[in-house]
Amino acid sequence: MPDMTTVGDPVELPDRWILPLVGQQVTQIHVSYQLGLMLDSGALVELETTAFIRWADGGTNSINPATQDVAPSLSLFGTTVTDATAYKTGRLVLTFDSSTNLTIDPHPRYEAWNITPQGGSRFVAMPGGDIAVWL
């Protein structure tokens, strides 16, 4: 089974979902009490709790949408998703063509992230771990 997929259907593996975001470019970033990444297909990635950006040089920055401390995420504008994995534990890892990773773990009390890919499916990190999936 492949580890990556392009726009189309999500792929379920025993421990994770491969999300159909590969090859899509970040065309808009919005900030409220969430950090939203709009992709050129119309897919939307929304982060609601602290996440981490890991740079190609090994450095790491945290981002916190609740306090609008998201400046490092602006570097994702114009980058293209090269891998999009949602682990069934609730962890989300997005990798971009800039060799940057965006990682967000589940929150014990809140939905940490949600993704609405093109095509009507939806993925939500549930409080405490696990993922709710609508296909």
In angstroms, what is the radius of gyration?
A: 13 Å
Structural class: mainly beta
Distance between the termini: 20 Å
Question: Order of strands in the sheet with the most strands?
Answer: 1-2-8-9-10-6-7
Topology pattern, helix = H, strand = E:
EEEEEEEEEEEEE
Backbone shape:
globular
Q: Main β-sheet: number of strands, strand sense, barrel status?
A: 7 strands, antiparallel
> Poorly predicted ranges (pLDDT <50, ≥5 residues)?
1-6
The quaternary state of the protein chains shown equals single chain
Percent range of helical residues: under 10%
Counting DSSP H or I runs of 4 or more residues, the number of helices is: 0
Number of domains: 1
Short description:
The chain is mainly β and about 140 residues long.
Structure description:
By secondary structure, the protein is mostly beta strands. It has one domain (11-134). The protein has strands spanning 11-12, 16-18, 26-31, 35-39, 44-47, 51-54, 60-63, 81-87, 92-96, 101-104, 113-116, 122-125, 131-134. The strands form two sheets. A seven-stranded antiparallel beta sheet has the order 1-2-8-9-10-6-7, with no helix packed on it. It has a six-stranded antiparallel beta sheet with strand order 3-4-5-11-12-13, with no helix packed on it. Strand 12 and strand 13 (131-134) form a beta hairpin. It starts with 10 loop residues before the first strand and ends with a strand. The model is unreliable at 1-6 (pLDDT under 50).
